Amino acid sequence: MHTRRRTSTAATVLRSVLDNGPVARSTIARLTGLSPAAVTRQYAELADLGLLREVQERRVPRATVGRPHIPVDIDVDRFAVCGVHIAVPHTTLSLMDLRGRVLHQEREPHGERTPEAVFGRVLDRFPAFLEATRAGRTPLGIGLATGGWVDPERGLVVRHSQLGWRDVPAREALAPLGLPVHVESHSRALARAEQLFGDQRTRFSLVHLFVGNVVDAAIATGGTVHHGPRSASGDVAHLRLEGSTAECPCGRRGCLQATVSDRAVAERAARAGLIPEPSLPLLLDRAEHDSDARSLLRERARHVGRAAGLLLDVINPEVLVVTEAGVIGFPECLAEVRAQVGDRATDVVPTSFGRDVLSVAAGSVVLDAIYGSPLDLCA
After folding, report:
1. Taking the complete model, does pTM exceed 0.70, yes or no?
2. Domain count of the chain?
3. Same domain (yes/no): 68, 176
4. Which whole-number Å values give the CA distances from 135 to 55, 107, 143, 266, in the listed order?
5. Per-residue pLDDT band at 45 (split at 50, 70, 90)
6. Does residue 115 sit in the same domain as residue 184?
7. How far apart are CA 184 and CA 150, in angstroms?
8. Contact 276/282 with Cβ under 8 angstroms?
9. R_g over Cα of the chain
10. What domain range includes position 96?
11. Which of 110, 232, 296, 330 is most buried as measured by Cβ atoms within 10 A of its Cβ?
């Protein structure tokens, strides 16, 4: 019991510094309800671990006689976390600091898409990437994020229909890199990233809707991301959309993923002659200067907005966060999404992480573990 309480107190102090730092220890005590002595003890332990440090150059003046308070902050120079995000067309490697900021990232298209080929390439590339980018920081772990059905407890990619993967032991595949490996779906990882580093309104409840080649969602209530039995929650690929006639591999028409996935919209653009081959990056480039390409992205955004409206009605979160390339790159796409949800338009927001979103998804799998249990992860 004492150990659990100590771990919980450490996490509370660390999160308070993340939210408010640089911040005086007396302010942490006031904000968290902990005693000044408890805050001082936990600060000392977290500082010994290298997670917190005093910020000597910025002092908080006291109203009474005595030396000023020395504020404390997250130590962003000692440690880093690594990320591996596996998308349908490519893998992204990333390095992040403890405030969730992407320090470095690189992306490489897949050759073969078998688990053996994809993870084999990661094992080949990762050591050189880390050595070239860490700048003296010690890596605390690797986060593996991808779409589809992911079971973090078992470290499995249970099913990724777009890659054709089933029951892939992702944690085991990255074990040769010699660092702790944490595995999660990218939607759930991004939901936690928003709660840690993004929109403050997401702290209590949110829905995160991810629209890429895979379309899935994450739900958080009471500050906790829902996993469900066998971590199977978040599958919205076959949510039926009014107004869509897109054919789905499941045999029905109008399924969300078949309507709005990157592949689906890129194929429509190629058939319309807007791009030479089905490629979302080509479509996004074309949309920078072509109204027909932007119109196609706005059409996708309207469908995304209808799905967002359904999720808002059923789940009723404080905020619904949308990660979708058009919404990230074009304000009119966000406006189309919001237009579909009526009087809750202001509750729909784009991801806080822009074009770094895949890197953040992967690295945040480790950061969530650190901020949830810092004494265990960094001891």
Report:
1. yes
2. 3
3. no
4. 21, 20, 19, 39
5. very high
6. yes
7. 6
8. yes
9. 22
10. 79-191+358-378
11. 296
